[in-house]
Amino acid sequence: MVDQTPPSDKPAVRSVAVRKSRGRISWIWLVPLVAALAGLSMVVHAWMKAGPDITIQFDTADGLVAGQTQVRYKDVVIGTVQRIYFSDDRNKVMVEAALNKDAADIAREGTRFWVVRPRLGFNGVSGLGTLLSGAYIDVDVPKIAKATEQDNFVGLETPPPVTHDRAGKIFTLKAENLGSLDVGSPVYFRRISVGRVVGYRLEPSGAAVDVDVFVDAPNDRFVTDRTRFWNASGVDVSVNGDGVKMRTESLVSLLLGGVAFDTPADGGHDQVADANTQFKLYGSQAEAQSVPRGFAYPVQMRFDQSVRGLAVGAAVEFQGIALGKVTAIDIDYDMKKRHLYTVVDATLYPELLGHVLGNMEKRFNDGKQASADRMLAAMIRFGMRAQLRPASLLSGQLYVAIDNFPNAPPVEFVHSDPPLIPTVPGQLDQLQEQVGNILNKLDKVPFDQIGAALRDTLNSTSRLMAQLDKQVAPQARDVLKQAQVSLQSLNQLLGPDAPLPSNTQNAMAQIDRAARSLRALADYLQAHPEALLRGRGPDPIPGAGPSKN
Fold this sequence. Notes:
25 strands
């Protein structure tokens, strides 16, 4: 085919053939590819590292921030709070937290969560580190190896007193009332803090309070089946013959209260108590230490007097030895005498008397109950009686004293259930009875007649004194005057210038000379007795030798 196109005025352009390259990719596309691969690896890594998502229910969200608040276990971060929202009824706060994959086993039944924030309590200040780092959620994981997985939890508003990883045992104490105990109150053994109170609650019946205490290991081995717990709160004040005694475990127990325990060292067999064992919480150390041993022996006593000051739990003593406790106080009516009596029930422990019950049991080869009945009958036969006595003059409290009264009227022991112990009036009642008898005797004295006779006697005495004043007194004055005159005359007669003394002196001189002459005569007659017959010879001549009669 011939080309018919007319020629152009422009110069002809030479065509150049362009060759297109096949299979070449631009380097610019590698950048988003690498970024996509890096993102995918990060997603895969995050997916492989991610753990379960859990929901925790709290009362408030104080200190919690979504995306910032951490979840820690033993101060190791194991997750982060992702979302915070209200529950359907808006009464609770729901906190969603994402846990790490290595902490996935924490999300199981029994795990506890709570918010750590600064707290001020009687035990001190806790959570001060959160002032800088902010609040966080702490975790307590139980020791159960195989537990059911769980993703919904109810958080604690306060930290648990004891975590699951703490070694020790929890025991339950039954008390009549809580007193001053609270969570965190210390538990003492020989005045050393070995635990704390971890909780309390009312019994379903409301008759008592259950107190949970935790004793740290290894001190929990000192809690045995015979251990006795008592309330060591405040100050225990006792007044007795030795004076006023005050006892307290520590200064901390004065503020926080406290519990103490000990085991009687009476040589009994002790076995370490298991966890969750129940014990009775006594009100004081004296009450705990006075718990008797051996079998219980119930008795009954009837008092025909006021029992004001006698309470349930009062001591029953035998000659100063604690033998039991009062268990009940009631009123009974005697149809024959038509009189109301006060009935006191008590529980005695005869084994506290030592070897007396054991010796009687061996002698008669019977049981403890029969031996106790036989011993009680013998003691009543020999004058054993029950009497109310004051335990304290300040408080007016009474206790039951069982003692021997030889002058008590005889009573025949009657076996009953429970046995009846005869009673005698109390010391105060006896004093009142004696005072009443004295007053009755005084009422029988004829005070009116005695008064009339005494009045007559006084009148007679008055008349006699008047007569003496009128008659006898003047005569007595005259007699005194005459006696004065006689004494004056006697003084004149016996004066140094009177003739009577001079004459008396001369007479005494003559009597003295006569006595000397008689003494010389007696001496001569003693030497010359023959002079009574021959007479006295002539006086010897000096130097002429002896004279001859």
